[in-house]
Amino acid sequence: MTCVLGLAGNSLSSGSHWPFGLLLCKLTYFMFNFNMYSSVFLLVLISVDRFVMVMFPVWSRNHRSPWKFLLPLFENFLGTIVQHRTYNTEFR
């Protein structure tokens, strides 16, 4: 993400001129939005996980495993891609 912010900052400081080409422009835009949406979805997942642990401690302890952690992460990834594609098609 640090590289993406540097490229975006360079573009803003040069008066919205993008000297790096179309491929890097699209990749930077995708990475910036992907990071933004995945961060939001990850915070929601963490909040739901903590809520379940506080409200249902015994059930949570009995039903947690490392493999069950991967499914929400995969859903987070897919949700981020879908959200990015929806945003791209609606507002361009």
TrEMBL record:
GO molecular function: complement receptor activity; G protein-coupled receptor activity
Record carries keyword ATP-binding: no
InterPro entries found in the cross-reference section: Formyl_rcpt-rel (IPR000826), GPCR_Rhodpsn (IPR000276), GPCR_Rhodpsn_7TM (IPR017452)
Superkingdom, taxonomy of origin: Eukaryota
Principal subcellular localization: membrane
UniProt GO BP: inflammatory response; phospholipase C-activating G protein-coupled receptor signaling pathway; positive regulation of cytosolic calcium ion concentration
Keywords, ordered alphabetically: Cell membrane, Disulfide bond, G-protein coupled receptor, Glycoprotein, Membrane, Receptor, Transducer, Transmembrane, Transmembrane helix
Protein name: G-protein coupled receptors family 1 profile domain-containing protein
Source lineage: Eukaryota, Metazoa, Chordata, Craniata, Vertebrata
